[in-house]
Amino acid sequence: MLRKVTTPTADPALLLDNQLCFALYSASLAMTKLYKPLLETLALTYPQYLVMLVLWERDGLTVSSLGERLTLDSGTLTPLLKRLEQAGLLSRQRSAEDERQVLVSLTPEGRKLKTKAAAIPGCVVEAAACPIPELMALTRQVQTLRQRLTAPPTPLIAS
Q: What residue ranges carry the coiled-coil annotation (predicted)?
C-alpha cells in the first residue's frame, strides 16, 4: 500500500527562490562561469584577474592595501601574488621605508595585459543583455548591501 506523503505548506521565508543569499550565490557562480573562458585567453584565474584589476587601477600598492581592497587575507592573497609574479606580471619588493611592508608593482608584461583585458567588460555587458545604467545601479546596490553586512553592528540604546 502506498502512503501519501504530505508536505506542510511552505513558509515563504524559507523558500529557496525567496533567499537573497541564494540569488547572490547562484549569480556569482554564473558570473564566474562566464568569466572563465574570457580569462583563459589571458592565462588568469578569476581571483588573479581581480588582483590585476586593482593594480591596473593603482600600481605600487602594499600587500595589505591590496588585501583590503579585495577583502582577502594575506594567506589567500600571497599565493595569488606568487603565481602572478612567477608568470612575470608583477613584482613584490620590500619597502625601503618600512621593511614590514611589501610593495606590489606591475611589470611591463603586466601593464601590456591590460590592453588584452579591455574587451572583457564589454563581453560581460553583452552576456548580461542589460543596459549599462541598469548594471551600474545593480552594482551600486550590491556594494551598498556588502557595506551594510560588513559594518559593525549599531549598539542598541536602552531607553
A: none
Cα torsion angle, 112, 83, 36, 127, sign: negative
SS3 content of the chain, % helix, strand, coil (to 5): 60, 10, 30
Nearest to 22 by CA among 9, 11, 13: 13
DSSP-derived letter for residue 143 is H
CA 96 to chain centre: 30
pLDDT digits (tens, 9 = 90+) for 99-127: 888 999 999 999 999 999 999 999 999 99
pLDDT at 100: 85
Which residues is 117 bridged to in the sheet? none
Determine the Cα–Cα distance for residues 121 and 59; give it in Å rounded to an integer. Answer: 20
Q: Which domains does the chain have, with CATH numbers?
A: 34-114 (1.10.10.10)
User: What is the C-alpha to C-alpha distance for residues 142 and 9, in angstroms, rounded to an integer?
Assistant: 32
pLDDT at position 159 over 60: no
* Residue 152 burial class via C-beta count within 10 angstroms: exposed 0-12, middle 13-18, buried 19 and up: exposed
pLDDT averaged over every residue in the chain = 92
Q: How far apart are CA 106 and CA 58, in angstroms?
A: 10
HSE of 8 in the Cβ direction (CA atoms, 13 Å)? 5
